[in-house]
Amino acid sequence: MKHLELIAELEEIAAQLGLKVRYEKGNFEGGFCILKEERLLVINKKLPDPKRASTLAQALNEYGIENVFIKPAVRQYVEDELARQRGKSTKSMRVVRQ
Q1: For the chain, how far is it from start to end, CA to CA, in angstroms?
Q2: How many structural domains does the chain have?
Q3: Using CA atoms, how far apart are residues 93 and 80, in angstroms rounded to an integer?
Q4: Using 50, 70 and 90 to split pLDDT, how confident is the model at 86?
Q5: CA 57 – CA 61 distance, rounded (Å)
């Protein structure tokens, strides 16, 4: 599945959950937030498509997608992105002991 297709699928999942997706400029990647009681996924519009898809997947997971039907290929993508992010944070947080 191509990144633009993934983005469209992830945006549809957000809509099903009652989340609005907004693309804005700024010094951030994106994520889930609440603004004046409105539930939003805010994504940096300057990100390349692969990073947009990844950021959307992570934000949806943060919100909670356990009880939502998601196409198997899309769910696999979300799970792969979460595993990849956990791997990055584990590597970057290693403590060197002397």
Answers
A1: 46
A2: 1
A3: 20
A4: confident
A5: 6
pLDDT above 60 (res 88): yes
Q: Parallel, antiparallel, or unpaired for β 20-24 and 38-44?
A: parallel
Length of the chain: 98
Question: Which residue range(s) make up the domain with 40?
Answer: 3-90
Helix (H, G, I), strand (E, B) or coil at 86: helix
Query: So what's the pLDDT on residue 92?
Result: 42
What distance in Å separates the CA atoms of residue 1 and residue 9, rounded to the nearest whole number? 10
Q: What pLDDT, on the 0 to 100 scale, is given for residue 79?
A: 93
Q: Which pTM value belongs to this model?
A: 0.82
95 belongs to a structural domain: no
